[in-house]
Amino acid sequence: MLYDQIQETVAAIRSRTTFQPRTGIILGTGLGNLAGDVSVEAVIPYGELPHFAVSTVQSHQGKLIFGHLEGHPVVVMAGRLHYYEGWTMQQVTFPVRVLKALGIERLIITNASGGINPHFRGGDIVVVRDHINLLPENPLRGTNDERLGPRFPDMSRPYDEALRARALAAAQKHGIRAFEGVYSAMQGPNLETPAEYIMLRRLGSDCTGMSSVPEVLVARHMDLPVLMLSLVTNVSFPPSVIKETSVEDVINIAAAAEPNLSLLVREILKS
Fold it and tell me: Which residues contact 61 (CB under 8 A, 6 or more apart)?
């Protein structure tokens, strides 16, 4: 069933464009401006594709953009889907499966997160080396289709080492504050309490958000290399520094720091 739905969506896309992307990019909250740098070949709103859910979150445009970025063929998800919107995990991750079926060779995921490492500050970029999954459901739950991936995918190396090295080298080259770290995924949509931030830090988390890990699980299920870049928008540890934060605050901080994140993505694509 899932495999057939993927093929139907791919066919719908191929009926509108023959463009062949090599890299998929998922744009997170407040990070949509990178889409404007793409030399566009085709744009397809999610709502015009069979089996695609539609993003309902502020600042998420909800469309696939095909084109070139730094001369590299990409497909950009301008806006992602979240479990807290009410979608199932299979719906949240369905676009990643479609991108893989379209032939992408790697996936770059961006998101906005709360900083838990006390050395971080707003605007820092976390090159994620590992994650802690605290979401209540797994997108791989249910009957496994061996055409998509194995029943028990290995997660000892969830994030591609070569892509991480490129990101860190590009940050150093341009004087951008970037650190390797561990990302934790919470259900949301509420932000975490002070006690939860303390718990996450004790678990080993450097930053936390409400997305991305489901996409990583599905990508690795399909043996797709992943790079995650998380932009710290609010510092939440120690609890004494926590400030009341709105989605508008997150979007504004992310937008201000987005040029650095966009620069890293473009540098990686150049290589």
Answer: 32, 35, 55, 78, 79
